[in-house]
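Fill in residues.
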């Protein structure tokens, strides 16, 4: 075979190969490029994380307890001891007359108890990979790397024609507000005064369960009503308070005077601001002092918000 014949044969073979490469597939579509990993297995699409529905946990729960009325108890002292409003105690037990309680009677008390929110109920935070550069929602492609087949190709085309799925950011639940105090009628503002003279040796503290303040003084020192009102408890039936006086000032406020040596007023007696009601002592206490509390709707509040207390 001469050189010219060989050249013509080579050119014809090259033209035939090129024609085969440009011929479209019978279906009119080009075959997709197959991509494999190091183990020669096709990669799968990453799952799209779904937004988790937040579970709202209450910050407070109400525990119902039964209280057995003891000698010397009044509705006011029972409510005071348990940190609730005396009117609520009357409502819970259908008492038309707050004074109509008897020794041995069982009273229902609904005590609010704080509960920590369960960590497991909190939704997972949004991952950085789910959020776009501008803080918006990032769209995920629906198709990963699929092995080539007619069925896979049809599935890929169908998915690509659908809109991309957007993953919404997780919603962080807000903590429920603490229980609101019951509504009260409009009342004249109280003018509070110091219940005795002396220096503050212990302040109000919710974390340490100190429900009032302690003022040091001398035995027999005068204790006076911090504001005008009516004596609703006078006695020594509340453990930890010694000889105690509770004065009701209006529908909202009570004040308490504990550890007295002598009590000079009786239950049901009206007193005026500055009137002497007791003498300082150390009953059920480690030293001579006055333990003074202010209760708003049954809840202890910091007396320093109402009085010019002097720290030692």
């Amino acid at each position: 075979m001469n050189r010219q014949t060989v050249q013509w044969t080579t050119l014809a073979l090259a033209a035939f190969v090129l024609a085969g490469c440009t011929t479209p597939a019978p279906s009119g579509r080009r075959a997709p490029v197959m991509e494999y990993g190091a183990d020669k297995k096709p990669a799968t699409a990453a799952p799209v994380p779904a937004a988790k529905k937040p579970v709202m946990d209450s910050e407070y729960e109400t525990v119902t307890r039964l209280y057995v009325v003891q000698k010397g108890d009044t509705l006011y002292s029972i409510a005071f001891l348990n940190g609730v409003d005396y009117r609520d105690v009357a409502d819970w037990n259908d008492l038309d007359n707050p004074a109509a309680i008897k020794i041995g009677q069982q009273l229902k008390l609904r005590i609010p108890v704080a509960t920590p929110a369960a960590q497991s109920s909190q939704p997972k935070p949004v991952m950085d990979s789910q959020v776009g550069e501008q803080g918006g929602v990032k769209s995920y492609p629906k198709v990963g790397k699929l092995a080539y087949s007619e069925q896979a190709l049809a599935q890929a085309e169908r998915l690509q024609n659908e809109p991309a799925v957007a993953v919404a950011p997780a919603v962080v639940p807000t903590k429920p507000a603490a229980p609101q105090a019951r509504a009260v009628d409009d009342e004249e503002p109280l003018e509070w005064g110091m219940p005795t003279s002396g220096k503050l040796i212990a302040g109000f503290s919710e974390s340490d369960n100190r429900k009032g303040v302690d003022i040091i003084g001398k035995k027999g020192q005068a204790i006076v009503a911090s504001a005008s009102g009516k004596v609703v408890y006078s006695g020594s039936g509340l453990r930890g308070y010694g000889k105690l006086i509770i004065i009701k000032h209006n529908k909202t406020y009570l004040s308490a005077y504990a550890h007295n040596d002598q009590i000079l007023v009786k239950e049901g007696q009206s007193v005026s601001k500055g009137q002497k009601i007791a003498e300082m002592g150390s009953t059920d206490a480690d030293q001579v002092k006055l333990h003074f509390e202010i209760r708003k709707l049954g809840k202890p509040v910091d007396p320093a918000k109402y009085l010019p207390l002097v720290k030692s």
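Confidence is low (pLDDT under 50) at residues 31-46, 51-58, 118-146, 175-186.
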